[in-house]
């Protein structure tokens, strides 16, 4: 498996890309590296990917109803798979409820 940083570096359009562009490209690469040939993830694979790659954002959220709703939907036995759009919606949803987001908002930048 090729490291994400190396994959990012190989994308010529991102050579002078912004931090935000690189962040979204990283999310897309992480997703694509785990997806099946049809570009989708099973719900179990999605849950595992979130737990391994998004732990800082979901840590401590276990008692929040919205978190429980998201995770229980992934635990359901279903043939439905998650596409990239749904995966990004999960990322945004988990980010918005995260305690880490508050910490990020409180970071002071200096010029």
TrEMBL record:
Domain EF-hand positions: 62-97
Origin superkingdom: Eukaryota
SMART domains: S_100
A GO MF term: calcium ion binding
InterPro entries in the cross-refs: EF-hand-dom_pair (IPR011992), EF_hand_dom (IPR002048), S-100_dom (IPR034325), S100_Ca-bd_sub (IPR013787)
Protein name, UniProt field: Sentan
Source organism of this protein record: Pelecanus crispus
């Amino acid at each position: 498996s090729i490291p994400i940083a190396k994959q990012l570096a190989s994308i010529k359009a991102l050579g002078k890309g912004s931090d935000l562009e690189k962040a979204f490209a990283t999310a897309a690469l992480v997703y694509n590296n785990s997806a099946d040939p049809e570009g989708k993830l099973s719900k179990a694979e999605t849950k595992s990917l979130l737990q391994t790659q998004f732990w800082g954002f979901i840590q401590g959220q276990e008692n929040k109803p919205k978190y429980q709703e998201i995770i229980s939907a992934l635990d359901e036995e279903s043939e439905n798979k998650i596409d990239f759009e749904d995966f990004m919606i999960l990322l945004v949803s988990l980010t918005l409820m995260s305690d880490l987001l508050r910490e990020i908002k409180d970071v002071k930048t200096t010029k």
